[in-house]
Design goal:
By secondary structure, this protein is mostly helical. 71% of the residues lie in helices and 4% in strands. The protein has one domain. It has six helices and two strands. A two-stranded antiparallel ribbon has the order 1-2. A hairpin with a 6-residue loop joins strand 1 and strand 2. Helix 2 (27-55) packs antiparallel against helix 6 (134-158) and helix 4 (72-89) packs antiparallel against helix 5. Residues 1-12 have low confidence and may be disordered.
């Protein structure tokens, strides 16, 4: 009995094995799973634990803005992008060399922008809190985090 698998699943996770006609897990899927568990999840863990702390306390109001307004997610984004650049830089040269160069450049830009913004926000909170926009910081942090995760996944998938 052969099971039909949708195209989306076969494209990213499963590949037909020519010798049997059955599907097997692609090596890139295993790499991505390890990357998500050991890079992304562990990098986000301190923020999640802080969120749990806020949720379980009556005297602390939990909001996404309150959780992210100091820019910690920017450091997480920089770490994820740095991990991706490391994976990509240590991989071999293949026909996907142009993609690797572009993705490495994007990830490096995320590292620089996230690091600079975190430094700027940290100083801003210490010097003049009235000029700081918690909503703006949260929005930028979320966008850079999303960009870091997507770019990191692509870098990890392209690395050898």
């Amino acid at each position: 009995m052969r099971v039909e698998v949708k195209w989306v699943c076969t494209c990213f996770v499963l590949a037909p094995a020519p010798e049997t006609g059955l599907y097997r897990v692609k090596p890139a899927s295993v790499k991505l799973l390890k990357w998500v568990v050991f890079s992304v999840a562990l990098a986000v863990a301190p923020l999640l634990l802080n969120a749990l702390r806020c949720i379980t306390r009556k005297d602390i109001a939990f909001t996404l803005t309150g959780l992210l307004e100091r820019g910690e997610l920017l450091l997480v984004s920089a770490a994820i992008a740095a991990s991706a650049v490391g994976d990509l830089a240590t991989s071999g040269i293949t026909t996907a060399q142009k993609s690797k160069i572009v993705l490495g450049g994007i990830a490096s830009g995320i590292i620089l922008l996230s690091s600079w913004l975190f430094a700027d926000i940290s100083v801003g909170w210490q010097v003049n809190t009235e000029q700081m926009s918690s909503d703006g910081i949260t929005l930028i942090s979320c966008w850079l985090f999303a960009a870091a995760v997507v770019t990191g996944a692509c870098c990890t998938a392209l690395s050898d």
